[in-house]
Design brief:
This protein is an alpha/beta fold. It has seven helices and nine strands, in the order E-H-E-E-H-E-E-E-H-E-H-E-H-E-H-H. Helix 2 runs parallel beside helix 5. It is globular.
Length: 242
């Protein structure tokens, strides 16, 4: 192990993981003989995979956990590519878990120095895709959450269970008034790879959803640029001190 306390990063997509600055290493490639400063796992929103990955990260000595990736925008002020640091994460049960304030403030300061704009506010974790704009409006009204994703609530719960500081960094891929087309639902494998064949097969059934699919792809590209900007800070450690 290096002299620096490593951190573990959970992403949904392999593409999100590529926004992290080297020498971030995939958890699957780490044999434990030399643990790098940053370990990541792309889990495709799979709850069991998230829990297993965090347990392995803890076993390898990770001292902080980060939920990192794209999200659905719920607040009207958020546009594709906007970045959100969560102050709290709401679980599907309604429970709130606070992110680590010191870590969050350190990253906000680093982002400010680099002139990277970030918003701070609550994020909600969901077990299922939120696809319609009406659902997003209702969820924001009910919870005041700025954004929603499918990993952060599990990351928050597991980090609390292990007594570790955690943080959430999310970039908006689909804002409140954009709908996720059916062809893009459940489009990831448990390791965060796109199910290209499934998407193409569904598109053949509903070709009229192609414009919406193209739009979400373009919006996701903006989100990835935002993630790359933050992922390049502090050697991919996001200001973690531990």
């Amino acid at each position: 192990m290096t002299g620096i306390s490593p951190i573990g990063i959970i992403t949904g997509l392999e593409r999100e993981a590529r926004c992290l600055t080297p020498p971030a290493m995939s958890l699957a490639d780490c044999d434990g003989s030399l643990v790098p400063p940053v370990l990541y796992a792309a889990v495709g929103g799979n709850a069991a995979q998230i829990r297993q990955s965090i347990q392995l990260m803890v076993d390898l000595g990770c001292r902080g956990i980060l939920s990192f990736g794209i999200a659905a925008g719920l607040d009207r002020i958020l546009k594709p590519g906007d970045l959100v640091l969560a102050g709290t994460v709401e679980l599907p049960t309604g429970d709130l878990i606070r992110t680590n304030a010191a870590w969050r403030q350190q990253l906000r300061q680093m982002a400010k120095i680099e002139r990277i704009k970030v918003e701070q506010g609550p994020v909600i974790g969901l077990d299922d895709v939120i696809s319609s704009s009406l659902e997003k409006v209702r969820l924001h009204a009910a919870t005041a959450a700025m954004a929603a994703d499918m990993e952060s609530h599990i990351v928050a719960f597991e980090a609390r269970k292990h007594g570790l500081p955690f943080m959430v960094v999310r970039a908006i891929a689909d804002p409140f008034d954009h709908e996720v087309p059916w062809v893009a639902w459940d489009a990831l494998t448990p390791t965060g790879k796109p199910k290209v064949g499934q998407v193409l097969g569904r598109l053949a059934l509903r070709p009229y959803q192609l414009p919406a699919l193209i739009r979400i792809a373009l919006d996701s590209r903006k989100a990835m640029k935002g993630l790359e900007a933050l992922g390049s800070l502090d050697g991919g450690r996001f200001g973690f001190i531990g």
